[in-house]
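Dear support,

I submitted the protein below through the web form. The confirmation email said the job was done, but the results page showed an empty box. After a refresh the structure appeared. I'm attaching both so you can tell me whether what I see now is the final result or a partial one.
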Amino acid sequence: MQKLLSVAIPCYNSRDYMRRAVESVLPGRDRVEIIIVDDGSVDDTARIAYEYAKKYPRFVKVVRKENGGHGDAVMAGLKEATGLYFRVLDSDDWLDRESLFKLLDVLERMAEVGPKADLVITNYVYEKLAEGKQKKIHYRKTLPSGHIFGWDEVGKFGIGSYILMHSATYRTELVRDCNMTMPKHTFYVDHLYVCHPMVHVETMYYLDVDLYRYFIGREDQSVNEKVMLSRMDQQLKVNRLMLYDLDLNAIENDVQRRYLYYYTEIVTLATVSFFLRTGTKEAEYEMESFLSEIKQQKPQFYEWITGSPVTSHPIRSVEKWPKWLSYPLYRFVYCIARRLFCFN
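What the results page shows now:
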């Protein structure tokens, strides 16, 4: 019998926290397939992975590979997936038990009765355990819940509430058929993982549960602000791939095209923010050069991100206002947003 859900868990030197991730999926038992991808770890990750595979051979499998980075590990997990649906769980995050049961119930109904949505969307929670803080991201004001719907029923996404890897459970066949590729040894490719299949999504289902718990707090975490600032080249690389590899203008549905424009704008906004956050003249020059590049090579997208009002398109202030005003103001607003939305 086909599994309802394949969960790929990319691991690199994850011995200290991977057990929580794996054990959060185990309650799904025979309805789930857990694919632990050991991405060339040099610690006890492989030993722990095989320990789970030996104990739970019906629903845990291990993939070992040379180190290729997060995106390469996700693709290795996707290659091995046999479940009807597929999602990614990072090794330092976890799934909520009751929410997982509800998701599996929805997938079971789709499998038995149909139709099958291309994408099932659930909420996620930023977990800052060291500070005792949570920030829940939901879609109640944007998406109808409890039934399958198309893009024409999608409302306006609020700031900070766009669909991330953490909220996306894709139909496995759709993810495979979209011919997605992700570069090796590159962080922040989760944006590509979301957007490449999204171009082909026609039907969705929103399950209003807080499924994914997104841990924030490790010093070496890829989304730690200091780490991100040191990896600006990789952020820029992913941003360019989104701009040039996705033919957004070919999307016929206006709502779908507008959403993916919005998502790409958010990633571009992050790139601009981190360049300015760096605070050096060299970083400012790189940011200005990148925006000039977009203006020349993607003029339609450039007009979008510099559109009016500035509350909808914050990059407008960087391009249209004087530097002495916009750059310091941008840095200040970024710090406020960082506290409000609990990222980094």
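Response: this is the final, complete result; the empty box was a page-load delay. The chain has 13 helices and ten strands.
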